[in-house]
Specification:
heterodimer, A: 513 residues, alpha+beta, Arc Repressor Mutant, subunit A, 4 domains, four-stranded antiparallel beta sheet, 13% strand, extended, disordered C terminus, B: 317 residues, alpha/beta, Rossmann fold, 2 domains, six-stranded mixed beta sheet, two-stranded antiparallel ribbon, 10 helices, globular, DNA damage (chain A)
Chain lengths: 513, 317
């Protein structure tokens, strides 16, 4: 399961039952949500779709093999319940009636909801082909990314995009964005950002992480942010979501009529145009084309790869590939050697900027850049909040075809070293503790240490300097033990020197782990 | 090997072979008409396609004396192409393309009476030919899939009785499928158990099922035949208690319980013959049977006159 599915899931699971009941009124939404489920969740729905009576919980358990199967069933049921597709009543599982009806409609093509997009009745005089749409989508989307990394390629994105970038905390207008953007009216913020000079809105830690993700995750991250914003803009959440899911069911290269859309959705169309998710020839045109970004929304396949399923898609993928060559390969251009050298066959300022996040770039040629991964370059990325895992995923995802012949794709030494550099950064870990010092006698120190280690509360100790570090949990017990020692000593020993014991100096030392 | 390599995210390729033998579907005792059954099957196809965005489907009609691809249409317009059917906002486009192709394809096949029906073809469909087509299609699909993640399987929906003349080609298909790790699921919608196909499911680790009530076809399809290879690891699915392993003899295509087997090429014969009709091995002995003299005389008289090639090759169709 890819990341975007997880993120959209998390979002959906926060919605109340009423919202779901409205969402499920559209077969397209039912289908899209169905596709987000784990395989066994899908199977449970399919198995019970044409069973008219509720299914006893014990009966469903019999469908699954022991242990492994039942575990999967539990997982799947949890998801289904969270999405309000199934509910458990008196030992029976019952399927949501709306979902049941509309999902059956989706499978049989019944009903009259028109949720799969109304095609235009007349052919378009200015028909555009798939290659054009791909080009358009890539251009629009990359413009946003370019803006984020601060390259001067292309024109700056429109207000809506800027607003969203600020809102989602991917970029900041110089000051602390989270506190500011919320308090400020969205429009104000956008205009403020637009007024400011190019370089001024700065990319945040979150933004860097965003750049390293695959495009589908990026699009969903954007759309989810849009959903969050929709509530504050008084847009109907259900209509927005329905439209997103509808887009996912449309077919690339076809034009659809925007006449059946609600006012909210028409407004939405305008915004999505800016992200390159849909194409409209001119504002207010009665037809729109979904681009590849839209049609793969619910599929989970890498967007710009094209899949190898059939001839049209192959042709389309070839077209995309051609498009990519023009503006720098989007996929498979990195060669990483065991000596930490990295060669990237790209001339896209965007890709170079992304690489520059964690690679020490050295030379630049017309069609390629070379660099080397060093401790410093990785640490620089780590301080920006990028994780080693993200770097490795990015490198794997964009590995050159030559690299893919090997398993594992990336040289192990480099991968391990990147991880080690990350761990290195996490050497220090603050722990609240109590330091016991100034033990008068060695035997006092030893008995205290023994007592404390029996309790398992010793963090660190030093025999020579008679120091013990005790966790906060153990402080009370050890403290009273030490107090007892002092009292006993006072009673016993006149001739011996008074053991002075200082304790209870609370502070936060750094412990080597 | 299977469990470790099957990934949750692998797309599935399902090849459905539909038996449209009109002799059986139009039989007065048929519990279900072809059109009704087709509604169920179409919903099932959609359910398969709904499962994943990249799930793929191929449909082959197995008619009397012919078998034909219904979807994807090999020479027709490219599936999913823009010049497709008229769009309907109530239906998911992918589903609609498939359903239209299948329905119109079957209608065309049934309207077109086959003039050249051979005598032995009557009464049963070309299941073997359809299986071969399906296997070839899968082979092609696997070859063109660079990632090598597609999980293929075949589902045979049949109503016809076994045709013993099909035995050798069917067995060849079964072994090819077994070798290529392609499970063959079989749903015998009504009638007697299909012996050969039962063996097919058994050998390829597919599912064989004969529903008790064919009118609930969709539920059976959804419940037992929809789970993909990944889900099957976790589900209890209908199994076979008893498999009929009877074979058909190579000489007269009779289904036999006990027969004679050539010790060199393992061809099966219903009666003793001194020369194997397949590999031409000469047997210089008489079988040890009380009535050896009588049998020997008979074998000499009815020496298999029509040797059939039985090298393990899928039959061309």
């Amino acid at each position: 399961m890819s990341k975007f599915q997880t993120s959209i899931h998390e979002y959906l699971e926060t919605l109340p039952l009423q919202t779901f009941n409205r969402l499920y009124q559209k077969p397209a939404t039912c289908l899209a949500i169905f596709r987000l489920l784990p395989p066994l969740g899908k199977q449970i729905i399919m198995s019970s779709l044409y069973v008219d009576t509720p299914i006893p919980v014990t009966d469903m358990k019999l469908w699954f093999k022991e242990s492994a199967g039942l575990m999967k069933q539990k997982e799947a049921m949890q998801r289904l319940k969270a999405l309000h597709i199934f509910s458990e009543e008196r030992g029976n599982y019952a399927m949501n009636a709306t979902f049941l009806e509309q999902f059956r409609n989706a499978l049989t093509g019944g009903g009259n909801s028109q949720s799969f997009g109304l095609a235009t009745s007349t052919p378009d005089k200015h028909h555009v082909d798939i290659a054009f749409l791909d080009d358009y989508a890539t251009k629009q989307w990359e413009a946003i990314l370019h803006f984020m990394v601060g390259t001067t390629e292309g024109r700056p994105p429109c207000k809506g995009v800027l607003n969203l970038l600020g809102r989602s905390g991917l970029m900041t207008g110089g000051s602390d964005v989270s506190s500011h953007a919320d308090s400020m009216d969205a429009r104000d913020f956008a205009s403020q950002m637009a007024r400011q000079d190019f370089g001024v809105p700065k990319i945040t830690h979150k933004g860097f992480q965003f750049l390293l993700q695959d495009i589908n995750t990026q699009v969903w991250a954007f759309l989810l942010q849009y959903l969050n914003m929709a509530e504050s803009l008084n847009m109907d959440l259900v209509e927005v979501l329905t439209f997103f899911f509808q887009l996912g069911s449309l077919e690339l290269g076809n034009d659809y009529s925007s006449e059946t859309l609600t006012p909210t959705q028409t407004h939405l169309l305008e915004d999505l145009k800016a992200y390159g998710i849909v194409y409209q020839r001119k504002r207010g045109s009665r037809r729109f084309y979904p681009t590849r970004l839209a049609t793969t929304l619910t599929s989970g396949t890498p967007v710009m790869l094209g899949s190898h399923t059939n001839a049209t898609k192959l042709a389309a993928a070839a077209a995309v590939r051609k498009g990519e060559e023009e503006e720098g390969d989007d996929h498979g251009f990195i060669i990483l050697e065991t000596n930490y050298r990295l060669y990237a066959y790209t001339d896209s300022p965007l890709q170079i900027a992304v690489l520059n996040l964690f690679v020490h770039l050295r030379d630049r040629f017309p069609n390629m850049v070379t660099g080397v991964i060093t401790r410093d370059s990785i640490r620089r990325a780590l301080t920006k909040g990028i994780t080693a895992e993200q770097i490795i995923t990015y490198l794997t995802a964009h590995a050159h075809a030559q690299m893919r012949k090997h398993t594992p794709v990336l040289p192990l030494t480099v991968v391990d070293q990147i991880r080690l550099w990350e761990i290195e950064k996490n050497r220090l870990r603050p722990v609240q503790s109590w330091l016991y010092s100034d033990f008068g006698r060695q035997q006092d120190f030893e008995s205290t240490l023994e007592y404390a280690s029996e309790l398992g509360v010793v963090l660190w100790s030093n025999q020579k300097r008679r120091l013990i570090c005790i966790t906060t949990e153990g402080h009370q017990a050890v403290g009273s033990y030490v107090r007892k020692l002092i009292i006993r000593q006072k009673e016993q020993a006149q001739q011996a020197q008074q053991a002075r014991q200082q304790h209870q100096q609370q502070h936060v030392p750094s412990i080597a782990s | 090997m299977k469990d470790s390599t099957i990934n949750e995210d692998d797309p599935n390729l399902l090849v459905i072979v539909i038996d449209i033998n009109p002799f059986e579907w139009e039989h007065p005792s048929a519990p279900l008409s072809l059109n009704e059954a087709l509604q169920h099957i179409l919903a099932f196809m959609n359910a398969h396609l709904a499962g994943r965005h990249d799930n793929r489907l191929a449909v082959i009609a197995s008619h009397v004396g012919a078998s034909k691809f219904l979807y994807p249409e090999l020479n027709g317009p490219i599936p999913g192409g823009r010049v497709g059917t008229k769009k309907d906002a109530n239906a998911y486009q992918v589903f609609k393309v498939v359903n239209d192709a299948v329905q119109s394809g079957i209608a065309k096949l049934l309207q077109d009476p086959r003039p050249a029906l051979e005598e032995r073809d009557v009464g049963s469909s070309k299941i073997a030919a359809s299986l071969s087509l399906g296997l070839c299609y899968i082979n092609q699909a696997l070859k063109s899939d660079g990632m090598g993640h597609v999980r293929p399987r075949i589902l045979v929906l049949t109503v016809s009785p076994d045709s013993s003349s099909d035995y050798i080609p069917i067995m060849n298909c079964i072994f090819s499928a077994q070798k290529a790790n392609i499970p063959i699921d079989v749903c015998k919608i009504w009638g007697k158990d299909a012996v050969f196909l039962q063996q097919a499911a058994h050998i390829t680790e597919g599912i064989y099922m004969k529903p008790s009530d064919p009118r609930g076809l969709l539920q059976i399809l959804m419940f037992s035949f929809l789970p993909d290879m990944y889900s099957r690891n976790y589900l209890y699915l209908p199994g076979q208690d008893q498999v009929d392993f009877r074979a058909a003899c190579f000489c007269h295509k009779k289904i036999v319980d006990i027969g004679y087997v050539c010790s060199v090429c393992l061809s099966i014969f219903c009666s003793f013959s001194p020369v194997c009709s397949t590999c031409r091995t000469k047997f210089a002995f008489q079988p040890l049977l009380p009535s050896a003299r009588r049998l020997g005389a008979k074998a000499g008289a009815s020496n298999p006159g029509s040797p059939r090639p039985s090298t393990p090759l899928p039959t061309p169709s």
